[in-house]
Amino acid sequence: MTRYLHRKYMPAAFLVCALTALLLVSCGGPDEPGGSNDGTPLPNPAIDRSEDPWKIVVTLPLFAEMAREMGGDQVSVTTLIPPGEDPHTYVPDEILATAVDEADIVFVNGLGLDQPAIDFIEEHRPPRRFFLVDIVRNVPSPSTEQPLGGRPIYAKEAGDEPHLWMDPVLARIYVETIEHSLVIIDGLNESFYDARFAVYKTRLQELDATMAAEMEKVPPENRSLIVSYHGSLIHFANRYGLEIAGTLQEEGEEGLRAIIESERPPAIFGEFGFDDSALRVLADEAEIEICELNTDSVEDGVSYFEMVERNAEQLVTCLGG
To answer: For 64-73, how does the pLDDT look when each residue is reduced to its tens digit (9 = 90+)?
Structure first.
């Protein structure tokens, strides 16, 4: 199937089929447009749409960054969940209903992570069709043995823990899904989007190599001692040879207290945007340090790459590297 498709020349029903085939999607106050910030020269778009950019809506700030990196000034991006808010519970402000109504594409994570925002999107679905892209539907499950040939088993089917982007290797598929979506609706600018994806993919490969080297600094005896708020680090830990000893969400306060008393981890990890008061009580009782990570949310202006690098620095420092 050709990727050169454009909304001006194509019936809506055909566009629905194209998106469904490639992305396995379901149909369904803007941030400033942005672009690649690593200094690499990139081609100009064949057709400049910066005066009337594609309208993108995303649930998480990290997805907004990825959309801007892929679309540059050809897109405007609206984020439904602000930095520092818990996506598991946060309901978007009603003022954002207009952005949903006017969207060309909406990107969500799913797997229970951003469900209130997804419910908000469904509630304000416009009479016309727009495209709700469930990103994890395109991510092969990292927890399931994959078949040697044929169709992979996807994360959504396997019910994987939703923070797949914490692993830079899996994060590539998030960005690739966004880029492919833009190519489908704006195929005349395929080279523009492809070039931006190539740069981002290289940066992710470099980040993966950096993280592997950084995690080697954690003493082997401490690599199984990560105690945190919830299971958001599982994919990162699996990628780099670490192990989650326990989480407050799964073990509860008493269960986690028992794990801390038994394992004596050098630190406990809270997460930005989540109430860490219970973790602080446990850390004080055990007389160990509490450190903070970014997982679901990041501070305003912090990029995905900065987030992962900061997390690595915290893990190395707090686990005794």
So the answer is: 999 999 999 9
Residues 52 and 120 in one domain: yes
Is-contact 181 274, C-beta < 8 A?
A: no
Distance (Å, whole) CA 259 – CA 245:
7
| Any domain includes 149 | no
Residues 6+ apart with CB under 8 A from 292: 269, 270, 271, 272, 276, 314
pLDDT of residue 41: 78
Please name the residues in contact with 47: beta carbons below 8 A apart, sequence gap of 6 or more: 186, 188, 189
Q: Is the pLDDT of residue 18 over 50?
A: no
CA atoms within 13 A on the CB side of 177: 28
**CATH, residue 130:** 3.40.50.1980
- Please tell me the distance from the alpha carbon of residue 262 to that of residue 285, in angstroms, as a whole number: 13
- Give the chain's mean pLDDT: 87
The confidence band for 37, taking pLDDT boundaries of 50, 70 and 90, is low
Cβ–Cβ < 8 Å for 263, 225 = yes
Q: Which tokens hold the place of 297?
A: 């949310």
Tokens representing 162 are 């939703």
Question: Into how many domains does the chain fold?
Answer: 2
Residue 148, in any domain of the structure? no
Determine the number of helices (DSSP H) and then strands (DSSP E) in the chain: 11, 9
DSSP 131-179: EEEEGGGGSB-SSSPPPSSSSPPBHHHHT--S-GGGSHHHHHHHHHHHH
Other beta carbons within 10 angstroms of residue 60's beta carbon come to 25
Polymer length of the chain: 321
**Residue 4, domain member (yes or no):** no
Q: Distance (Å, rounded) from C-alpha 56 to C-alpha 105?
A: 5
Cα dihedral 38→42→47→51 (10° resolution)? 30
